[in-house]
Amino acid sequence: WLKARIASRRAVANTPCSVAAMSTTLPQRPGLIVKGQRGVSEAGGGAEAARHRVQLAISPLGPAMAPFLGYHSSVLVGGTEYAFTGTGVVRSAGPKSHDAFEADTIFIDCGRSLVERAAFEAALYPLFARGTYDLLRKNCNSFADAAICLLTGERLDSRYTQMEAIGRLADRHFSLVQTLSGGVYTPNPKADAFDIDEVADGLRALRLGCVLTAPSSRARRTVAV
Prior knowledge:
Blueprint: H1 2-11, E1 20-23, E2 32-33, H2 46-51, E3 53-60, E4 68-77, E5 80-85, E6 88-93, E7 106-112, H3 117-127, H4 140-152, H5 162-174, H6 176-180, H7 196-213, H8 215-224
Antiparallel strand pairs: 1-4, 2-7, 3-4, 3-7, 4-5, 5-6
Helix pairs in contact: 4-7
């Protein structure tokens, strides 16, 4: 598992990518679109709805039947991708961070968000700043979790981070991942204070404020009054 993760990290060293792992296969959920349809049409709701459409993009990093399968994840807002890398949050037109992977990318439709792009970027860019990436403790899945939480109030399914949680535990107590990687992985001290659950709590509160002040939300309240 670890060798596969490191090999995948090296293979996409120059792309907006990070590595995380989980076991078994992708969850079977509605709204899955395969890589062959990378130009996903924003069907229904018009241009305004498309602008706020939120998608989770996931690419397997190995064979589909591998017992411990890694994934790269990112978030798309209105077709614009946001991915976390060693250089910070990378913004691209379309899911470009997934181009380095041979396997199909799966898109999970997460609905629409009332959080404006400027507020989204202002909140997440400082949290996931350049140089704070850590393979086990603060990676692409951490960012996707935080982004989905801010945009929709939901959290990334824990099955996507199951194996990295085990890796964190093993490395914290036995330095196992550092040893097995031959020193390729070393904990990033800039990620020491990062706690995704604390971050998610703060983002939920921020999201509430964004939603309550969104133009469409104000309009609905005015009509109700």
